[in-house]
Prior knowledge:
This protein has 124 residues and is mainly β.
Amino acid sequence: QVQLIESGGGLVQAGGSLRLSCAVSGRTFRDYAMGWFRQDPGKERAFVAWISRSGGSTSYADSVKGRFTISRDNAKDTVYLQMNSLKPEDTAVYYCAADNSAYFSGIAHDYEYWGQGTQVTVSS
């Protein structure tokens, strides 16, 4: 069983920055590609960013490209999401997820394990 615990959410003004962290335990962290998703009430969970097992490859949703950066520290079993130039439309609950696959996926259903989510609110 893999456990994921997110932290770092909060309230920030538009144009500000936040860094989310996701600590992973229970299995070998480097065996999993990691993703970040976000969800608004009443909407489906949407892909934000993905990072490969080694950290050598990344992928982003068009809406966050150039503003968000995903990274991982395999020595600390942690994945990060640096969010800059935040906009009110970035407001959502953010989830990290683990995928036991060598290939990119932006589909929530493909991810085996999920954290509990952390709220990010961007005020205008």
